[in-house]
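User: Can you model how S-adenosylmethionine sits in this protein?
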Amino acid sequence: MSAASDRRELRLARRTGSHRCSDHLVVAPLWVAYNVNLGTLLRTCDAVGACMAVPASPHYLEALARGDTLVRRPCIHWLDCERERWVEAQRALGWRIVAVELAERSVSLPRLEVAREPTIVLLGHESSGIPEEMVDAADTCVEIPMLGVGRSLNVAVAGSLVLYRLAGLA
Ligand SMILES: C[S@@+](CC[C@H](N)C(=O)[O-])C[C@H]1O[C@@H](n2cnc3c(N)ncnc32)[C@H](O)[C@@H]1O
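Assistant: Here's the modeled complex, given as structure tokens:
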């Protein structure tokens, strides 16, 4: 049997799940600009069983239509109001807000616990990050340690690392 067909069989045996709307893990890349990053995050949502929440703007509608390479895509929750108000409203409903961002009070990723309560993960713009007031309003901020000279990771990489951790898969 060839390596390719071995892999196909392994995939069939191990990827038996189908996406259901997550009632506990939602990624909200509310300020992300590049289509490719949104497409990558959508694949991570599928992998960890999370949903995605984004503004219902032409930018996100187009980016997610283009970046969707999955047979069946994860749930996308379209915001029905302005971003900041939506985050506040979810918080009032009992969701814990985790901002993935460098901040004075950020906890380091290895110390982040698995999400045991409904959690929304905020991700920032590729050049300006998450707006300061949203970082301040979050329940938890998480920073991914970096040893190199780069100032930050690609946002889809950062989001994926945090989602894997919160989902208890890494
Ligand atoms: C490319 S970074 C933005 C960097 C921006 N120049 C700044 O200094 O805020 C885009 C997003 O990825 C996430 N990110 C990237 N690297 C990170 C890290 N090491 N720790 C936490 N979040 C990170 C954050 O959500 C950030 O807003």
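A couple of observations from the model: The helical segments are 3-14, 35-48, 58-66, 83-92, 132-137, 155-166. The chain has one domain: 22-166.
User: Helpful, thanks.
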